[in-house]
Design goal:
Helix content: 25-40%
Distance between the termini: 43 Å
Number of helices: 6
Structural class: alpha+beta
């Protein structure tokens, strides 16, 4: 029932007003703040804004190919402090392959972990046929190993995936880049997983 699944992810994250589903195998059936995988980012930003954002964020992905670029939107969203998207720079329709909703938990890692566990339990019910993996990863840009992300991944049969996690960053990096420790909820296409798994250096 696609209509029932629409907007579930948005409702799920903060209000915890859950709906019962038997299974979910198509990531495009979900929305974050009303936006789905496969939508055009042009529905939300101008081409000029998209291009400028990709250029601003390009350095964050210097270890990866130029196949995708990241765009942030900081707005008064219903449930998130900010959203980010991965799109193909050469695609003039700017189709969305990845959506990440972030909520600030700066210096509140225990609270972030508690919310992450709540969401993980609900994802386990929704993505009944998914393969679940717990992954703790150190960010390659921080050679001290103090910037870490703690995640649960849900790999769908379609090849697409969902993720919920908490990321914390080294203090001086947060000051330099205006970053915050945060809870992150992600939905992404299989192509994004392949991109992340194959850095160029």
């Amino acid at each position: 029932k696609v209509f029932v699944m629409k907007r579930l992810l948005l409702i799920l994250i903060l209000t915890l007003s859950f709906q019962t589903l038997t299974k979910a195998d198509d990531i495009s059936d979900f929305e974050i703040e009303g936006i789905s995988i496969g939508d055009s980012l042009l529905d939300h930003l101008s081409e000029k804004e998209i291009i400028e954002e990709m250029e601003t964020n390009k350095s964050s992905y210097r270890n990866f190919s130029d196949d995708f670029g990241e765009v942030y939107i900081f707005d008064k969203f219903e449930s998130y402090d900010r959203l980010s998207f991965l799109i193909k720079p050469e695609d003039k329709k700017y189709i969305i392959y990845f959506i990440k909703g972030s909520i600030s938990y700066d210096n509140k890692l225990d609270q972030c972990f508690a919310k992450k566990e709540e969401i993980k339990q609900e994802f386990s019910k929704i993505f009944k046929n998914a393969t679940e993996r717990k992954k703790t990863l150190k960010f390659k840009f921080d050679l001290t190993g103090k910037s870490v992300t703690y995640n649960y991944y849900f790999y769908l049969n379609s090849g697409d995936y969902a993720r919920v996690g908490c990321s914390k960053y080294r203090k001086d990096l947060k000051i330099k880049n205006n970053w915050e420790d945060s809870l992150q909820v992600v939905i992404g296409a299989e192509e994004i997983l392949n991109w992340f798994d194959n850095p160029i250096n």
